[in-house]
Amino acid sequence: MLNNEMTGCLKIEYPIIQAPMAGGITTSALVAETSNAGGLGMIGAGYMAPAQMREQIKEIKRLTTKPFGINLFIPKPVQASKNSIKAANQALNPIRQKLQLPPQDNLDVADYIEVFKTFMEQIKVVMEEKVPICSFAFGIPSKEVIAELKQHNIILIGTATTVNEAVENEKAGMDMVVIQGSEAGGHRGGFHKQEQENVDSIGLMSLLPQAVDHISIPAVAAGGIMDGRGFAASLCLGAQGVQMGTAFLTCTESGAHKVHKEAILNIAEDQTVFTRAFSGKWARGIKNPFILEMQEHEGYLPDFPVQNTLTQEIRKTAAAENNPDFMSLWSGQSARLAKNQTVKSLIENMVTEAKQFNINI
Amino acid sequence: MLNNEMTGCLKIEYPIIQAPMAGGITTSALVAETSNAGGLGMIGAGYMAPAQMREQIKEIKRLTTKPFGINLFIPKPVQASKNSIKAANQALNPIRQKLQLPPQDNLDVADYIEVFKTFMEQIKVVMEEKVPICSFAFGIPSKEVIAELKQHNIILIGTATTVNEAVENEKAGMDMVVIQGSEAGGHRGGFHKQEQENVDSIGLMSLLPQAVDHISIPAVAAGGIMDGRGFAASLCLGAQGVQMGTAFLTCTESGAHKVHKEAILNIAEDQTVFTRAFSGKWARGIKNPFILEMQEHEGYLPDFPVQNTLTQEIRKTAAAENNPDFMSLWSGQSARLAKNQTVKSLIENMVTEAKQFNINI
Fold first, then answer.
1. Residue in A closest to B214 by C-alpha
2. Interface pTM (ipTM) of the complex?
3. Which InterPro entries match (chains A, B) (predicted)?
4. Nearest to B222 by CA among B190, B251, B198
5. Closest Cβ–Cβ partner in B210, B333, B359 for A203
6. CATH number of the structural domain B5-355
7. Which string of DSSP letters, residue by residue, matches A282-324?
8. How many CB atoms are closer than 10 A to CB B105?
9. For residues A209 and B227, what is the distance between their CA atoms, to the nearest angstrom?
10. Closest CA–CA distance from residue A282 to any residue of chain B (Å)
11. What are the tens digits of pLDDT across the range B162-200?
């Protein structure tokens, strides 16, 4: 009963997108295996230098002939006063001390926003390398960028956490839009009223049908989907396909730290929480000592990406020591359904299970 | 493909429960029309005096020969210091003044917990009147009460907001359990760690399949479901049926205040929020001046039902004046899907729409 525009447009077999998780999770093997299995692999390139992006794109092309995609972060003006950086450092220095890291006191905002400087170069790489699909988080690109990408026949996917954001994505010319429910792990991908997005996040069961009623481009469901049940449910709610992060994160091919994978495989559904203490942007992760210690400071921490740069060394050192207490252990609310399996078996099982509901995939 | 134990057990045609909304919303017409249309009508009797309950039960029996149910609140020890009552009154008195109500200063906890005193009498009425189905919010009845109700062949339905609560409901002998996602309007029906239940609420897309994996009694999906899409999606996720509040609240037969109905029919998906300022218990309602003014006081307000009694006159006066600013405008996150329609057309449309997904209802 579905007239699936999404698979036709993306030239893939199954409407299953591997979420573009940034920070080394989306290895070339993860991306290529997803595409080889009939889904859409995505590079989480938000934090990547252009040269690094190009290298990974080339590597993936050697591993698959199927379409794959890449995700970028939309830059926006940073609101981070010297005072907020000072206060963040005051809160972070005791944690740095625990990890035997030196205290930090650099207050120059410019030093913290590297990730925002390279956006236009990233876009250039996407076009030069002819990556067939490009998705965006934290905003919508400018008219000029959209026009140029479209001229290169690149399919564009936006991200929305509210109905209005979905409508804005369609108006701007996105070919489809990911509808991200409150269940989703990692960063909120939307772009409205950040101060509220932790408390006002909308569950996918509510958000998806309401968004679908207001757009005509394909909707891709995201948040809490882990298996054929969530896949079939998303199609009933009006999505044409799904995007899954946590389900791919614990796969064999994912580059997530083993401590991160193990943490997800061992928690219950109520052990994640929204925090902006890691990056300055609200994101859902497993409650750990870092989140708890920083909770009282959430209100005045500097914006993304300043806070992200401030916590970088802490996260890196903790990871090197296999210490989950100070790592950003992003996870959605369906961790009990996570499995350590190959990408191939994840996708095959999803399709088999979803087909049992008599829904045309 | 569904072997629907739920409809068999409840002796109803469609696995659609009208949520037992307390406070006058579940009129006899609403309950009886739901049952007459093939669903299960429920009296929200949490705040009702036993005599009032008996009267409504008798009235409903005159309006339908079909099964219907009733919902009760499980009493538990109240934590409400004189200091917290004093602080609540300090926060509420300026609002009372706006409504030309006298300030309050009664600090005697005992005067505020009427609703907890009558539970055993309420149970007695349920048995004497042979109400076929009884559901519970805020906890699980004692072994003795469960045994007695079962001896009277009354079908018991629990409420869970986490997987563990669902498991506890099954262990205690509930015949089925409502799985309430974060999208749901009104009170959180669960019973664990109240201090966290606003921030840790789990979206239905995540909660439902995880709960279903851990119980063998039928699961009833609740939270954000408004139409055949949510109905079909819930069945895909493993529920045997659905319970809907907001969708019934705006129906013609509902006793909700017209200002309440109009508010729901006019808001977007992101205009509700969790608050405990009305009742002392976390609940989702439309953001209004009362919620915003009380936000800073949430931390130290007395427990349910003390805070509920404290705000009673404010809510009542605001309602009498058609003033939405100080009423508890409970609503789920799917308000954009709410319609002013009859119960019969709500249920018929849901069933017709859900059947289009080729899922056996």
1. A336
2. 0.96
3. Aldolase_TIM, NMO
4. B190
5. B333
6. 3.20.20.70
7. -EEEE--HHHHHHGGGGGGPPPTTHHHHHHHHHHHHHHHTT-G
8. 10
9. 9
10. 13
11. 999 999 999 999 999 999 999 999 999 999 776 566 677
